[in-house]
Amino acid sequence: MEGKRYARFCMAVEHMAKTLQKYKNEKLAAFGLRSMHLMFMFQLNQTEEGLTGTELALNCSVDKAFISRVTGELIELGYIEYRNKTGTKYKNKLILTDKGRDVMEKINTIIDDTITSVTSEITEEQFDIFYTVLGTVDHNLENLPDERAL
User: What would the DSSP string read from start to end of 77-135?
Assistant: First the structure.
């Protein structure tokens, strides 16, 4: 019984993740972006002060090499910039440019429309239960002893 439950759970989560990734990349292509760019821009859109590369790495659970590559791409696209033009880039905060804020406004509209569309048949109570269960599973997976992990 547990094997069927595991297979159903894994297949559902992986299918949803792949479908979401494909959808995001299709929508983001219009802006020259991919889903990896979105997580950075979303984080930067949450703050006026900006974030350092280290803060972005922590918030997005990625390494510094990934940060360096993706921020470089976003700077090249004109969506983000360093707050101060002088000093080391490691302590300098990254912020959205006006172009980046405009794009995030459009992307947020797409996100809102998408969420409304795919969740129209789900009640707030069902969402509360879903996020509680999802949070519990995520927490338990994070804290799974190495000898029990698959």
Answer: HTSEEESSSSS-TTTSPEEE-HHHHHHHHHHHHHHHHHHHHHTTT--HHHHHHHHHHHH
| Predicted TM-score (pTM) of this structure | 0.78
Residues whose CB is less than 8 angstroms from the CB of residue 78 and which lie 6 or more positions away in sequence, other chains included = 97, 99, 100
Tokens standing for residue 110: 């797409």
Report how far residue 72's alpha carbon sits from residue 13's, in angstroms, rounded to the nearest whole number.
31
For residue range 108-128, what is the model confidence (pLDDT) as tens digits? 999 999 999 999 999 999 989
Q: How far apart are CA 1 and CA 115, in angstroms?
A: 33
Q: In the chain, what are the domain boundaries?
A: 2-121
Give the class (CATH, top level) of 2-121: mainly alpha
Rounded distance between C-alpha atoms, residue 96 and residue 71, angstroms: 11
What sign does the CA torsion over 107, 38, 33, 113 have?
Answer: negative
- Which residues touch 75 (CB under 8 Å, ≥6 apart)? 81
What pairs with residue 96 in β-bridges? 80
